[in-house]
Amino acid sequence: MRYLTDFADQAVIIPLVLATAAGLAFQGWRRGASAWLLVVTATFSVMLALKLMFLSCTPVFGSFDVRSPSGHVAAATMVAGGLAAILGRRRDIILPVALLAAVVVGISRLVLGAHSLPEVLLGAIVGLTGAVALLRFSGTPPRLNIAPLIAVIVVVAVLFHGLHLPAEAAIRHTAYSVAKYVPACRATPPFQHHSAE
């Protein structure tokens, strides 16, 4: 399961997103490259905001079993669905591809104990929204030479697979800092619970 979930780590996703944008721009589809970067950035920004909100306000949202929505699921769903939107000649495959990515990565996150089911579902919803938005804003793709784009995507995914960005730790630290200034959100960070032992 770790092998599967690592494909959705930001250490893989960010280079893959940048390489895809460069490939689209190189082939002359500047609108597609711009829409791709804009929608991916917006999707990641929404996930960051949700993570900060839920992590910093655990006392408020704790009953929903959501502490940190799954960024891995959101990224995998958005990127897989987005790539289907950009590279696919048939638009009807976008939703199935995005859902497949959400299910595969979502199950891996659940099995690894990294997230709860509501956290996985929330990540999937954000990712699906991003994929649909990309379809809306990118317009009709021109005739692209898909083979080199797919080759670049595969090479980037293989090269960066297994690397991890410590984004979650930085997000948690920021969330706990924010919680100090919001009375309803003041919670003891998990790593402080055992300090007396």
Q: What profile does the largest beta sheet have?
A: none
Q: How many domains in all? A: 1
Please work out how many helical segments DSSP would assign.
9
Helix content: over 70%
Query: What is the molecular shape?
Result: elongated
What is the alpha-carbon Rg in Å? 18 Å
Q: Structural class of the helices, strands and pairings?
A: mainly alpha
On the 0 to 100 scale, the average pLDDT is 86
DSSP strand tally? 0
Spell out the helices and strands N to C: HHHHHHHHH
Q: Spans with pLDDT under 50 lasting ≥5 residues?
A: 188-197
- Report how far apart the termini are: 33 Å
Q: Roughly what fraction of the amino acids lie in strands?
A: under 5%
- Quaternary state, please? single chain
What are its keywords?
single chain, about 200 residues, mainly alpha, 9 helices, about 0% strand
Topology:
Blueprint: H1 2-6, H2 10-26, H3 30-56, H4 58-61, H5 71-87, H6 94-111, H7 117-138, H8 146-160, H9 167-179
Helix pairs in contact: 2-3, 2-8, 3-5, 3-7, 3-9, 5-6, 5-7, 6-7
Q: What does this protein structure show overall?
A:
- With 197 residues, the chain is mainly α.
- The protein has one domain.
- The protein contains nine helices and no strands.
- The chain has helices spanning 2-6, 10-26, 30-56, 58-61, 71-87, 94-111, 117-138, 146-160, 167-179.
- It is elongated, with a radius of gyration of 18 Å.
- The two termini are 33 Å apart.
- Mean pLDDT is 86; it is low at 188-197.
